[in-house]
Amino acid sequence: MTPTRAELATRLVEAGHQIPSGVPGVYGRSGEFEAILTGVSQAFRGLREQPAEVVQFPPVVPVGSWLKTDYLESFPQLAGALHVFSGTDKDHRAMVATQVAGGEWHEHLHPSELMMVPAGCHPLYPMLAGGLPQPRRFDLMAHCFRHESEEDPLRMVTFRMHEQVYAGEPDGAIEHRELWLGKLVDLLRGLGLEVEVDVANDPFFGRAGRMLASGQREEALKFEVLSLVAGESPTAIASGNAHRSHFGENFGITLTDGSPAHTSCAGIGLERTTIALLARHGMATSEWPAEVRKRLGL
Amino acid sequence: MTPTRAELATRLVEAGHQIPSGVPGVYGRSGEFEAILTGVSQAFRGLREQPAEVVQFPPVVPVGSWLKTDYLESFPQLAGALHVFSGTDKDHRAMVATQVAGGEWHEHLHPSELMMVPAGCHPLYPMLAGGLPQPRRFDLMAHCFRHESEEDPLRMVTFRMHEQVYAGEPDGAIEHRELWLGKLVDLLRGLGLEVEVDVANDPFFGRAGRMLASGQREEALKFEVLSLVAGESPTAIASGNAHRSHFGENFGITLTDGSPAHTSCAGIGLERTTIALLARHGMATSEWPAEVRKRLGL
User: Fold this and answer.
1) Distance CA A248, CA A264 (A)
2) Residue A148, in any domain of the structure
Protein backbone atom coordinates (compact mmCIF):
# COMPACT_ATOMS: atom_id res chain seq x y z
CA MET A 1 0.00 0.00 0.00
CA THR A 2 1.46 3.33 -0.98
CA PRO A 3 0.70 6.23 1.35
CA THR A 4 -1.45 9.13 0.26
CA ARG A 5 0.46 12.23 -0.81
CA ALA A 6 -0.55 13.97 2.42
CA GLU A 7 0.72 11.00 4.47
CA LEU A 8 4.02 11.01 2.58
CA ALA A 9 4.40 14.75 3.14
CA THR A 10 3.87 14.28 6.88
CA ARG A 11 6.36 11.39 7.08
CA LEU A 12 9.04 13.40 5.28
CA VAL A 13 8.59 16.32 7.65
CA GLU A 14 8.44 14.18 10.80
CA ALA A 15 11.64 12.39 9.79
CA GLY A 16 13.32 15.79 9.32
CA HIS A 17 14.04 15.17 5.63
CA GLN A 18 11.79 17.95 4.39
CA ILE A 19 11.58 21.32 6.13
CA PRO A 20 8.49 23.32 5.14
CA SER A 21 9.10 26.97 4.25
CA GLY A 22 5.45 28.02 4.42
CA VAL A 23 5.10 27.98 0.62
CA PRO A 24 4.07 24.62 -0.89
CA GLY A 25 6.78 23.22 -3.13
CA VAL A 26 9.64 25.04 -1.38
CA TYR A 27 11.48 22.92 1.20
CA GLY A 28 14.74 22.71 3.07
CA ARG A 29 16.33 19.24 3.12
CA SER A 30 18.18 17.18 5.71
CA GLY A 31 21.78 16.07 5.36
CA GLU A 32 20.57 12.49 4.98
CA PHE A 33 18.24 13.56 2.15
CA GLU A 34 21.18 15.28 0.46
CA ALA A 35 23.37 12.19 0.85
CA ILE A 36 20.75 10.06 -0.94
CA LEU A 37 20.32 12.72 -3.64
CA THR A 38 24.08 12.93 -4.19
CA GLY A 39 24.27 9.15 -4.40
CA VAL A 40 21.54 9.04 -7.04
CA SER A 41 23.27 11.76 -9.04
CA GLN A 42 26.64 9.99 -8.91
CA ALA A 43 25.09 6.64 -9.82
CA PHE A 44 23.43 8.28 -12.84
CA ARG A 45 26.72 9.88 -13.88
CA GLY A 46 28.46 6.53 -13.46
CA LEU A 47 26.35 4.99 -16.23
CA ARG A 48 28.07 7.02 -18.93
CA GLU A 49 29.75 4.88 -21.58
CA GLN A 50 30.99 7.73 -23.75
CA PRO A 51 32.91 10.80 -22.67
CA ALA A 52 30.73 13.81 -21.91
CA GLU A 53 31.48 17.40 -21.02
CA VAL A 54 30.43 18.02 -17.42
CA VAL A 55 28.72 21.37 -16.79
CA GLN A 56 26.90 22.92 -13.84
CA PHE A 57 24.50 25.82 -14.36
CA PRO A 58 23.24 28.48 -11.96
CA PRO A 59 19.48 28.78 -11.27
CA VAL A 60 19.07 31.85 -13.49
CA VAL A 61 19.36 32.38 -17.25
CA PRO A 62 19.41 35.53 -19.42
CA VAL A 63 15.97 36.52 -20.68
CA GLY A 64 17.20 36.52 -24.30
CA SER A 65 18.22 32.86 -24.10
CA TRP A 66 15.03 32.00 -22.26
CA LEU A 67 12.85 33.58 -24.96
CA LYS A 68 14.60 31.45 -27.61
CA THR A 69 13.36 28.29 -25.90
CA ASP A 70 9.77 29.44 -26.65
CA TYR A 71 8.99 29.17 -22.96
CA LEU A 72 6.89 32.37 -23.00
CA GLU A 73 4.67 30.90 -25.72
CA SER A 74 4.50 27.38 -24.36
CA PHE A 75 4.79 27.38 -20.55
CA PRO A 76 4.09 30.91 -19.25
CA GLN A 77 2.27 29.51 -16.20
CA LEU A 78 5.52 27.94 -14.92
CA ALA A 79 7.87 30.85 -15.56
CA GLY A 80 9.69 32.92 -12.96
CA ALA A 81 10.97 36.40 -13.90
CA LEU A 82 13.44 38.24 -11.69
CA HIS A 83 12.51 41.79 -10.77
CA VAL A 84 14.97 44.12 -9.08
CA PHE A 85 15.33 47.59 -7.55
CA SER A 86 17.62 50.27 -8.92
CA GLY A 87 16.12 53.42 -7.48
CA THR A 88 17.44 56.31 -5.41
CA ASP A 89 17.32 56.90 -1.67
CA LYS A 90 13.99 58.65 -2.20
CA ASP A 91 12.56 55.76 -4.24
CA HIS A 92 13.71 53.40 -1.52
CA ARG A 93 11.98 55.37 1.23
CA ALA A 94 8.79 55.34 -0.84
CA MET A 95 9.05 51.57 -1.42
CA VAL A 96 9.60 50.82 2.27
CA ALA A 97 6.73 53.11 3.26
CA THR A 98 4.47 51.34 0.76
CA GLN A 99 5.43 47.94 2.15
CA VAL A 100 4.93 49.02 5.76
CA ALA A 101 1.47 50.35 4.84
CA GLY A 102 0.62 46.98 3.27
CA GLY A 103 0.71 48.37 -0.27
CA GLU A 104 2.09 47.16 -3.61
CA TRP A 105 5.78 47.74 -2.93
CA HIS A 106 6.68 45.54 -5.90
CA GLU A 107 5.64 48.46 -8.13
CA HIS A 108 9.00 50.04 -7.28
CA LEU A 109 10.83 47.11 -8.90
CA HIS A 110 11.57 46.64 -12.59
CA PRO A 111 12.31 43.59 -14.75
CA SER A 112 15.91 42.42 -14.71
CA GLU A 113 17.75 40.68 -17.52
CA LEU A 114 17.23 37.30 -15.83
CA MET A 115 14.65 34.50 -15.67
CA MET A 116 14.65 31.35 -13.55
CA VAL A 117 15.99 28.23 -15.29
CA PRO A 118 12.97 26.03 -16.01
CA ALA A 119 14.73 22.91 -17.35
CA GLY A 120 18.22 21.57 -16.80
CA CYS A 121 19.39 21.71 -20.40
CA HIS A 122 18.03 25.15 -21.38
CA PRO A 123 21.14 27.12 -20.33
CA LEU A 124 23.27 24.83 -22.50
CA TYR A 125 21.97 25.72 -25.95
CA PRO A 126 23.22 29.33 -26.11
CA MET A 127 26.78 28.05 -25.57
CA LEU A 128 26.41 25.76 -28.61
CA ALA A 129 25.37 28.52 -31.02
CA GLY A 130 27.36 28.28 -34.26
CA GLY A 131 28.80 25.35 -36.15
CA LEU A 132 28.83 21.90 -34.56
CA PRO A 133 31.55 19.95 -36.41
CA GLN A 134 30.77 16.73 -34.54
CA PRO A 135 28.23 15.51 -32.00
CA ARG A 136 28.74 16.64 -28.42
CA ARG A 137 27.53 15.04 -25.23
CA PHE A 138 26.99 16.84 -21.94
CA ASP A 139 26.46 15.72 -18.37
CA LEU A 140 24.83 18.64 -16.64
CA MET A 141 23.08 19.72 -13.48
CA ALA A 142 20.86 22.69 -12.74
CA HIS A 143 18.43 24.01 -10.17
CA CYS A 144 15.07 24.34 -11.93
CA PHE A 145 12.10 26.55 -11.06
CA ARG A 146 8.48 25.97 -12.02
CA HIS A 147 5.76 28.03 -10.47
CA GLU A 148 3.28 25.36 -9.48
CA SER A 149 2.60 25.66 -5.77
CA GLU A 150 0.60 22.68 -4.65
CA GLU A 151 0.23 20.77 -1.41
CA ASP A 152 1.86 17.74 -3.02
CA PRO A 153 5.26 16.58 -1.74
CA LEU A 154 6.15 15.46 -5.28
CA ARG A 155 5.32 18.79 -6.95
CA MET A 156 8.15 21.23 -6.27
CA VAL A 157 8.73 24.86 -7.18
CA THR A 158 12.49 24.39 -7.09
CA PHE A 159 14.25 21.12 -7.73
CA ARG A 160 17.48 19.74 -9.14
CA MET A 161 17.70 17.90 -12.42
CA HIS A 162 20.67 15.88 -13.65
CA GLU A 163 20.70 15.40 -17.42
CA GLN A 164 22.63 13.71 -20.19
CA VAL A 165 22.28 15.84 -23.31
CA TYR A 166 23.18 15.15 -26.94
CA ALA A 167 23.58 17.62 -29.79
CA GLY A 168 24.32 16.37 -33.29
CA GLU A 169 22.68 14.23 -35.96
CA PRO A 170 18.96 13.31 -36.04
CA ASP A 171 19.57 9.57 -35.60
CA GLY A 172 22.12 10.13 -32.87
CA ALA A 173 19.61 12.21 -30.93
CA ILE A 174 17.00 9.45 -30.93
CA GLU A 175 19.60 6.79 -30.07
CA HIS A 176 20.82 8.91 -27.15
CA ARG A 177 17.32 9.22 -25.72
CA GLU A 178 16.66 5.49 -26.11
CA LEU A 179 19.97 4.47 -24.63
CA TRP A 180 19.50 6.66 -21.58
CA LEU A 181 15.85 5.75 -21.02
CA GLY A 182 17.01 2.13 -20.79
CA LYS A 183 19.81 3.07 -18.40
CA LEU A 184 17.45 5.09 -16.22
CA VAL A 185 15.01 2.19 -15.95
CA ASP A 186 17.83 -0.21 -15.01
CA LEU A 187 19.24 2.25 -12.47
CA LEU A 188 15.90 2.85 -10.77
CA ARG A 189 14.94 -0.83 -10.72
CA GLY A 190 18.39 -1.61 -9.32
CA LEU A 191 17.55 0.77 -6.47
CA GLY A 192 14.40 -1.21 -5.70
CA LEU A 193 11.83 1.03 -7.39
CA GLU A 194 9.05 -0.33 -9.58
CA VAL A 195 9.04 1.78 -12.72
CA GLU A 196 7.55 1.75 -16.18
CA VAL A 197 8.10 3.92 -19.25
CA ASP A 198 5.26 5.67 -21.01
CA VAL A 199 4.87 8.27 -23.73
CA ALA A 200 4.15 11.71 -22.31
CA ASN A 201 3.74 15.38 -23.08
CA ASP A 202 4.98 18.59 -21.55
CA PRO A 203 2.42 20.84 -19.78
CA PHE A 204 1.87 23.23 -22.71
CA PHE A 205 -0.31 26.21 -21.77
CA GLY A 206 -3.88 26.88 -22.81
CA ARG A 207 -6.03 25.83 -25.72
CA ALA A 208 -3.27 26.09 -28.34
CA GLY A 209 -1.07 24.15 -25.91
CA ARG A 210 -3.44 21.16 -25.99
CA MET A 211 -2.70 20.77 -29.68
CA LEU A 212 1.06 21.00 -29.10
CA ALA A 213 0.81 18.39 -26.35
CA SER A 214 -1.19 16.11 -28.59
CA GLY A 215 1.34 16.49 -31.43
CA GLN A 216 4.21 15.73 -29.03
CA ARG A 217 2.47 12.49 -28.01
CA GLU A 218 1.67 11.49 -31.57
CA GLU A 219 5.29 11.91 -32.58
CA ALA A 220 6.42 10.04 -29.44
CA LEU A 221 9.01 12.69 -28.61
CA LYS A 222 8.80 12.56 -24.80
CA PHE A 223 8.86 9.52 -22.53
CA GLU A 224 8.57 9.46 -18.78
CA VAL A 225 9.86 6.93 -16.28
CA LEU A 226 6.96 6.55 -13.87
CA SER A 227 6.78 5.11 -10.37
CA LEU A 228 3.90 4.80 -7.92
CA VAL A 229 5.36 6.82 -5.04
CA ALA A 230 2.23 8.03 -3.27
CA GLY A 231 -1.47 8.34 -3.94
CA GLU A 232 -3.16 6.44 -6.72
CA SER A 233 -1.40 7.69 -9.84
CA PRO A 234 2.28 7.23 -10.69
CA THR A 235 4.77 10.11 -10.68
CA ALA A 236 7.37 10.83 -13.36
CA ILE A 237 10.78 10.65 -11.70
CA ALA A 238 12.84 10.72 -14.90
CA SER A 239 12.29 11.39 -18.58
CA GLY A 240 13.80 11.32 -22.04
CA ASN A 241 13.05 13.97 -24.64
CA ALA A 242 13.82 14.33 -28.32
CA HIS A 243 13.63 18.00 -29.31
CA ARG A 244 14.24 17.32 -33.02
CA SER A 245 15.66 20.55 -34.51
CA HIS A 246 13.76 22.89 -32.15
CA PHE A 247 16.76 24.16 -30.19
CA GLY A 248 19.12 23.77 -33.16
CA GLU A 249 16.98 26.19 -35.15
CA ASN A 250 16.20 28.63 -32.35
CA PHE A 251 19.80 28.88 -31.15
CA GLY A 252 21.52 28.63 -34.54
CA ILE A 253 23.33 25.35 -33.84
CA THR A 254 24.25 23.97 -37.27
CA LEU A 255 25.73 20.74 -38.55
CA THR A 256 28.51 20.75 -41.17
CA ASP A 257 25.93 20.52 -43.99
CA GLY A 258 24.32 23.70 -42.71
CA SER A 259 21.21 21.99 -41.35
CA PRO A 260 20.15 22.62 -37.76
CA ALA A 261 21.48 20.21 -35.14
CA HIS A 262 19.10 17.83 -33.42
CA THR A 263 19.16 17.58 -29.65
CA SER A 264 17.83 15.20 -27.06
CA CYS A 265 18.16 14.71 -23.33
CA ALA A 266 17.47 12.22 -20.61
CA GLY A 267 17.17 13.49 -17.09
CA ILE A 268 16.46 12.39 -13.58
CA GLY A 269 14.57 14.44 -11.01
CA LEU A 270 16.87 14.24 -8.01
CA GLU A 271 14.42 15.26 -5.30
CA ARG A 272 11.61 13.12 -6.70
CA THR A 273 13.85 10.07 -6.96
CA THR A 274 15.13 10.65 -3.42
CA ILE A 275 11.56 10.88 -2.13
CA ALA A 276 10.58 7.77 -4.10
CA LEU A 277 13.42 5.88 -2.39
CA LEU A 278 12.44 7.17 1.06
CA ALA A 279 8.84 6.14 0.40
CA ARG A 280 9.96 2.70 -0.83
CA HIS A 281 12.62 1.80 1.71
CA GLY A 282 11.64 3.85 4.75
CA MET A 283 12.67 7.15 6.31
CA ALA A 284 15.97 5.90 7.86
CA THR A 285 18.67 4.99 5.36
CA SER A 286 20.37 2.89 8.06
CA GLU A 287 17.53 0.39 7.59
CA TRP A 288 17.65 0.31 3.79
CA PRO A 289 18.71 -2.84 1.92
CA ALA A 290 22.50 -3.17 1.95
CA GLU A 291 22.63 -3.39 -1.85
CA VAL A 292 20.79 -0.08 -2.27
CA ARG A 293 22.97 1.63 0.33
CA LYS A 294 26.05 0.36 -1.46
CA ARG A 295 24.93 1.57 -4.87
CA LEU A 296 24.28 5.03 -3.46
CA GLY A 297 27.50 5.19 -1.45
CA LEU A 298 25.55 5.54 1.82
CA MET B 1 52.11 39.20 -9.64
CA THR B 2 48.38 38.66 -9.49
CA PRO B 3 46.50 38.98 -12.78
CA THR B 4 44.07 41.79 -13.38
CA ARG B 5 40.42 40.88 -12.96
CA ALA B 6 39.94 40.97 -16.73
CA GLU B 7 42.92 38.64 -17.21
CA LEU B 8 41.58 36.23 -14.61
CA ALA B 9 38.16 36.24 -16.28
CA THR B 10 39.76 35.40 -19.64
CA ARG B 11 41.86 32.58 -18.16
CA LEU B 12 38.84 31.01 -16.48
CA VAL B 13 36.88 31.06 -19.73
CA GLU B 14 39.77 29.80 -21.87
CA ALA B 15 40.37 26.91 -19.49
CA GLY B 16 36.67 26.03 -19.76
CA HIS B 17 36.04 26.52 -16.05
CA GLN B 18 33.68 29.44 -16.47
CA ILE B 19 31.08 29.55 -19.26
CA PRO B 20 29.73 33.07 -19.90
CA SER B 21 25.94 33.36 -20.16
CA GLY B 22 25.93 36.84 -21.66
CA VAL B 23 25.02 38.45 -18.33
CA PRO B 24 27.99 39.41 -16.12
CA GLY B 25 28.00 37.45 -12.88
CA VAL B 26 26.06 34.47 -14.30
CA TYR B 27 28.28 31.57 -15.38
CA GLY B 28 28.16 27.87 -16.11
CA ARG B 29 31.00 25.85 -14.54
CA SER B 30 33.15 22.96 -15.66
CA GLY B 31 33.17 19.55 -14.00
CA GLU B 32 36.70 20.27 -12.75
CA PHE B 33 35.52 23.56 -11.22
CA GLU B 34 32.72 21.66 -9.47
CA ALA B 35 35.15 19.04 -8.18
CA ILE B 36 37.29 21.75 -6.55
CA LEU B 37 34.20 23.46 -5.14
CA THR B 38 32.90 20.19 -3.69
CA GLY B 39 36.31 19.51 -2.17
CA VAL B 40 36.37 22.94 -0.50
CA SER B 41 32.86 22.41 0.84
CA GLN B 42 33.68 18.99 2.25
CA ALA B 43 36.94 20.21 3.79
CA PHE B 44 35.00 23.02 5.50
CA ARG B 45 32.40 20.56 6.79
CA GLY B 46 35.19 18.30 8.02
CA LEU B 47 36.39 20.97 10.47
CA ARG B 48 33.32 20.59 12.68
CA GLU B 49 34.16 19.60 16.24
CA GLN B 50 30.63 19.61 17.56
CA PRO B 51 27.56 17.94 16.07
CA ALA B 52 25.55 20.18 13.77
CA GLU B 53 22.27 19.71 11.95
CA VAL B 54 22.95 19.56 8.21
CA VAL B 55 20.45 21.43 6.04
CA GLN B 56 20.28 22.36 2.36
CA PHE B 57 18.06 25.20 1.18
CA PRO B 58 16.56 25.97 -2.22
CA PRO B 59 17.41 29.26 -3.97
CA VAL B 60 14.05 30.87 -3.13
CA VAL B 61 12.46 31.94 0.15
CA PRO B 62 8.93 33.11 1.06
CA VAL B 63 8.54 36.88 0.92
CA GLY B 64 7.23 36.98 4.51
CA SER B 65 10.43 35.40 5.85
CA TRP B 66 12.53 37.60 3.61
CA LEU B 67 10.88 40.78 4.91
CA LYS B 68 11.68 39.74 8.50
CA THR B 69 15.41 39.83 7.70
CA ASP B 70 15.03 43.59 7.00
CA TYR B 71 16.48 43.03 3.54
CA LEU B 72 14.03 45.47 1.92
CA GLU B 73 15.20 48.23 4.27
CA SER B 74 18.89 47.40 4.20
CA PHE B 75 19.85 45.84 0.84
CA PRO B 76 17.11 46.59 -1.73
CA GLN B 77 19.71 47.02 -4.50
CA LEU B 78 20.70 43.34 -4.21
CA ALA B 79 17.23 41.81 -3.99
CA GLY B 80 15.56 39.56 -6.53
CA ALA B 81 11.75 39.21 -6.51
CA LEU B 82 10.02 36.44 -8.46
CA HIS B 83 7.22 37.54 -10.73
CA VAL B 84 4.91 35.02 -12.38
CA PHE B 85 2.02 34.71 -14.83
CA SER B 86 -1.43 33.43 -13.88
CA GLY B 87 -3.59 34.82 -16.65
CA THR B 88 -6.03 33.31 -19.11
CA ASP B 89 -5.53 32.24 -22.71
CA LYS B 90 -6.48 35.78 -23.75
CA ASP B 91 -3.99 37.36 -21.32
CA HIS B 92 -1.34 35.03 -22.66
CA ARG B 93 -1.98 36.01 -26.27
CA ALA B 94 -1.71 39.66 -25.27
CA MET B 95 1.56 39.05 -23.41
CA VAL B 96 3.12 37.18 -26.33
CA ALA B 97 2.00 39.87 -28.79
CA THR B 98 3.53 42.53 -26.54
CA GLN B 99 6.82 40.64 -26.37
CA VAL B 100 6.93 40.06 -30.14
CA ALA B 101 6.32 43.78 -30.70
CA GLY B 102 9.24 44.59 -28.36
CA GLY B 103 6.94 45.91 -25.64
CA GLU B 104 6.81 45.59 -21.87
CA TRP B 105 5.52 42.02 -21.64
CA HIS B 106 6.53 41.86 -17.97
CA GLU B 107 3.48 44.01 -17.25
CA HIS B 108 1.39 40.85 -17.64
CA LEU B 109 3.21 39.26 -14.69
CA HIS B 110 2.45 39.76 -11.02
CA PRO B 111 4.52 39.34 -7.82
CA SER B 112 4.70 35.79 -6.48
CA GLU B 113 5.07 34.79 -2.86
CA LEU B 114 8.82 34.20 -3.35
CA MET B 115 12.10 36.11 -3.27
CA MET B 116 15.60 34.90 -4.11
CA VAL B 117 17.69 33.78 -1.11
CA PRO B 118 20.29 36.51 -0.54
CA ALA B 119 22.38 34.86 2.20
CA GLY B 120 22.90 31.23 3.11
CA CYS B 121 21.50 31.39 6.62
CA HIS B 122 18.37 33.49 5.97
CA PRO B 123 16.06 30.55 5.19
CA LEU B 124 17.05 28.95 8.51
CA TYR B 125 15.59 31.47 10.96
CA PRO B 126 11.90 30.90 10.22
CA MET B 127 12.33 27.23 11.15
CA LEU B 128 13.73 28.25 14.55
CA ALA B 129 10.76 30.45 15.51
CA GLY B 130 9.60 29.65 19.04
CA GLY B 131 11.43 28.52 22.14
CA LEU B 132 15.04 27.42 21.89
CA PRO B 133 15.65 25.23 24.96
CA GLN B 134 19.35 24.84 24.16
CA PRO B 135 21.84 26.15 21.60
CA ARG B 136 21.64 24.64 18.13
CA ARG B 137 24.32 24.45 15.46
CA PHE B 138 23.67 24.11 11.74
CA ASP B 139 25.84 23.23 8.77
CA LEU B 140 24.01 24.60 5.75
CA MET B 141 24.31 25.29 2.08
CA ALA B 142 22.32 27.56 -0.21
CA HIS B 143 22.40 29.15 -3.63
CA CYS B 144 22.45 32.90 -3.06
CA PHE B 145 21.39 35.71 -5.41
CA ARG B 146 22.57 39.30 -5.33
CA HIS B 147 21.76 41.61 -8.17
CA GLU B 148 25.14 43.17 -8.84
CA SER B 149 26.03 42.58 -12.48
CA GLU B 150 29.62 43.60 -13.01
CA GLU B 151 32.38 42.57 -15.38
CA ASP B 152 34.33 41.14 -12.47
CA PRO B 153 34.90 37.38 -12.28
CA LEU B 154 34.76 37.59 -8.47
CA ARG B 155 31.41 39.42 -8.33
CA MET B 156 28.62 36.94 -9.00
CA VAL B 157 24.86 37.26 -9.26
CA THR B 158 24.38 33.67 -8.13
CA PHE B 159 26.80 31.75 -5.98
CA ARG B 160 26.88 29.03 -3.36
CA MET B 161 27.62 29.65 0.28
CA HIS B 162 28.43 27.02 2.89
CA GLU B 163 27.83 28.20 6.45
CA GLN B 164 28.15 27.10 10.04
CA VAL B 165 25.41 28.79 12.03
CA TYR B 166 24.82 29.08 15.78
CA ALA B 167 21.65 30.04 17.62
CA GLY B 168 21.67 30.34 21.39
CA GLU B 169 23.35 32.44 24.09
CA PRO B 170 25.10 35.78 23.44
CA ASP B 171 28.53 34.50 24.51
CA GLY B 172 28.12 31.30 22.53
CA ALA B 173 27.36 33.29 19.38
CA ILE B 174 30.58 35.29 19.61
CA GLU B 175 32.62 32.19 20.47
CA HIS B 176 31.15 30.39 17.44
CA ARG B 177 32.14 33.18 15.09
CA GLU B 178 35.66 33.39 16.54
CA LEU B 179 36.18 29.64 16.45
CA TRP B 180 35.11 29.38 12.82
CA LEU B 181 37.02 32.44 11.64
CA GLY B 182 40.14 30.75 12.97
CA LYS B 183 39.23 27.47 11.29
CA LEU B 184 38.55 29.24 7.98
CA VAL B 185 41.92 30.97 8.06
CA ASP B 186 43.70 27.68 8.81
CA LEU B 187 41.77 25.88 6.07
CA LEU B 188 42.51 28.48 3.42
CA ARG B 189 46.19 28.81 4.38
CA GLY B 190 46.43 25.02 4.30
CA LEU B 191 45.21 25.18 0.71
CA GLY B 192 48.04 27.54 -0.17
CA LEU B 193 46.16 30.85 -0.10
CA GLU B 194 47.50 33.96 1.57
CA VAL B 195 44.69 35.36 3.68
CA GLU B 196 44.14 37.92 6.39
CA VAL B 197 41.16 38.78 8.57
CA ASP B 198 39.76 42.28 8.78
CA VAL B 199 36.71 43.96 10.24
CA ALA B 200 34.08 44.67 7.59
CA ASN B 201 30.57 45.86 6.92
CA ASP B 202 27.69 44.68 4.79
CA PRO B 203 26.75 46.81 1.73
CA PHE B 204 23.85 48.67 3.40
CA PHE B 205 21.89 50.83 0.95
CA GLY B 206 21.89 54.59 0.70
CA ARG B 207 22.59 57.40 3.11
CA ALA B 208 20.94 55.75 6.11
CA GLY B 209 22.87 52.61 5.18
CA ARG B 210 26.18 54.38 5.64
CA MET B 211 25.35 54.87 9.31
CA LEU B 212 24.36 51.23 9.72
CA ALA B 213 27.60 50.14 8.05
CA SER B 214 29.60 52.41 10.30
CA GLY B 215 27.82 51.07 13.39
CA GLN B 216 28.48 47.48 12.28
CA ARG B 217 32.20 48.26 12.01
CA GLU B 218 32.35 50.05 15.35
CA GLU B 219 30.77 47.11 17.09
CA ALA B 220 33.11 44.71 15.21
CA LEU B 221 30.21 42.42 14.26
CA LYS B 222 31.43 41.32 10.83
CA PHE B 223 34.86 40.02 9.84
CA GLU B 224 36.03 39.02 6.38
CA VAL B 225 38.74 36.59 5.35
CA LEU B 226 40.48 38.41 2.51
CA SER B 227 42.81 37.16 -0.19
CA LEU B 228 44.50 38.96 -3.09
CA VAL B 229 43.05 36.93 -5.97
CA ALA B 230 43.19 39.42 -8.83
CA GLY B 231 43.65 43.12 -9.35
CA GLU B 232 45.05 45.35 -6.64
CA SER B 233 42.62 44.96 -3.79
CA PRO B 234 41.90 41.76 -1.88
CA THR B 235 38.61 39.90 -2.18
CA ALA B 236 36.54 38.50 0.71
CA ILE B 237 36.30 34.75 0.22
CA ALA B 238 34.84 33.93 3.64
CA SER B 239 33.35 35.79 6.57
CA GLY B 240 32.08 35.56 10.10
CA ASN B 241 29.11 37.54 11.35
CA ALA B 242 27.56 38.11 14.75
CA HIS B 243 23.94 39.16 14.35
CA ARG B 244 23.38 39.75 18.08
CA SER B 245 19.63 39.44 18.73
CA HIS B 246 18.57 40.77 15.27
CA PHE B 247 17.19 37.50 13.90
CA GLY B 248 16.14 36.25 17.33
CA GLU B 249 13.89 39.28 17.73
CA ASN B 250 12.59 39.43 14.17
CA PHE B 251 11.78 35.71 13.98
CA GLY B 252 10.65 35.23 17.59
CA ILE B 253 13.43 32.80 18.57
CA THR B 254 13.53 32.91 22.37
CA LEU B 255 15.80 31.46 25.05
CA THR B 256 14.38 29.78 28.14
CA ASP B 257 14.45 33.07 30.08
CA GLY B 258 12.26 34.64 27.39
CA SER B 259 15.01 36.81 25.91
CA PRO B 260 15.69 36.68 22.16
CA ALA B 261 18.30 34.19 20.99
CA HIS B 262 21.59 35.46 19.61
CA THR B 263 22.84 34.08 16.30
CA SER B 264 26.09 34.09 14.42
CA CYS B 265 27.49 32.45 11.32
CA ALA B 266 30.73 31.79 9.53
CA GLY B 267 30.58 31.06 5.85
CA ILE B 268 32.74 30.37 2.86
CA GLY B 269 32.01 31.57 -0.68
CA LEU B 270 32.46 28.38 -2.66
CA GLU B 271 32.87 29.89 -6.13
CA ARG B 272 35.17 32.65 -4.90
CA THR B 273 37.37 30.20 -3.03
CA THR B 274 37.48 27.90 -6.05
CA ILE B 275 38.53 30.81 -8.27
CA ALA B 276 41.12 31.92 -5.71
CA LEU B 277 42.62 28.40 -5.82
CA LEU B 278 42.62 28.35 -9.64
CA ALA B 279 44.31 31.76 -9.69
CA ARG B 280 46.87 30.62 -7.12
CA HIS B 281 47.74 27.13 -8.35
CA GLY B 282 46.90 27.32 -12.07
CA MET B 283 44.01 26.33 -14.29
CA ALA B 284 44.76 22.57 -14.36
CA THR B 285 44.26 20.76 -11.07
CA SER B 286 46.50 17.96 -12.32
CA GLU B 287 49.40 20.37 -11.81
CA TRP B 288 48.41 21.54 -8.35
CA PRO B 289 50.56 20.71 -5.31
CA ALA B 290 49.92 17.14 -4.18
CA GLU B 291 49.05 18.27 -0.65
CA VAL B 292 46.33 20.64 -1.90
CA ARG B 293 44.90 17.98 -4.22
CA LYS B 294 44.82 15.54 -1.34
CA ARG B 295 43.05 17.93 1.02
CA LEU B 296 40.38 18.57 -1.60
CA GLY B 297 39.98 14.92 -2.58
CA LEU B 298 41.05 15.67 -6.18
Assistant:
1) 11
2) yes
- Collect all residues of chain A within an 8 Å Cβ-Cβ radius of residue B143: 58-59, 143
Record: contact A23-B95, CB cut-off 8 A: no
Neighboring chain A residues of B208 at a CB cutoff of 8 Å: 89
Residue B159 lies in a domain: yes
pLDDT exceeds cutoff 80 at A149 = no
User: What is the residue range of A234's domain?
Assistant: 5-80+118-296
Using alpha carbons, select from B231, B283, B234 the residue that is nearest to residue B13: B283
Contact B21 A62 (CB under 8 A): yes
d(CA B36, CA B254): 39
Give the tens place of pLDDT for each residue, B157-200.
999 999 999 999 999 999 999 999 999 999 999 999 999 999 99
Average pLDDT for chain A: 96
Residues linked to residue B144 through DSSP beta bridges, in sequence order: B159
As to burial, measured by CB atoms within 10 angstroms (0-12 exposed, 13-18 middle, 19+ buried), residue B1 is: exposed
Q: Which of B29, B59, B89 sits opposite A56 (nearest CB)?
A: B29
- Shortest alpha-carbon distance between residue A1 and chain B (Å): 30
Give per-residue pLDDT as tens, A73-113: 999 999 999 999 999 999 999 999 999 999 999 999 999 99
SS (H, E, C) A146-183: CCCCCCCCCCCCEEEEEEEEEEECHHHHHHHHHHHHHH
* CA geometry: angle B207, B208, B211, nearest 5 deg: 100
Closest by alpha carbon to B185, among B131, B227, B152?
B227
Residue B166 belongs to a domain = yes
Query: pTM of this prediction?
Result: 0.96
pLDDT confidence band for B150 (50 / 70 / 90)? confident
* Closest in A29, A62, A116 to B23, CB measured: A62
Q: Residue B258 falls within a domain, yes or no?
A: yes
Structural domain tally of chain A?
1
Best of A18, A56, A73, A128 to mutate (most B CBs within 10 Å, chain B)? A56
Contact A207 B89 (CB under 8 A): yes
| 8 Å CB contact between A14 and B41 | no
Which of A64, A82, A157 is closest, CB to CB, to B80?
A: A82
For B77, the closest of A81, A85, A139 (CB atoms) is A85
Q: What is the CATH number of the domain that holds A240?
A: 3.30.930.10
ipTM: 0.96
Residues 6+ apart with CB under 8 A from A6: A151
Residue of B13, B18, B26, B143 to mutate, interface with A, max A Cβ within 10 Å = B26
Q: Which residue in B has a C-alpha nearest to residue A208's C-alpha? A: B89
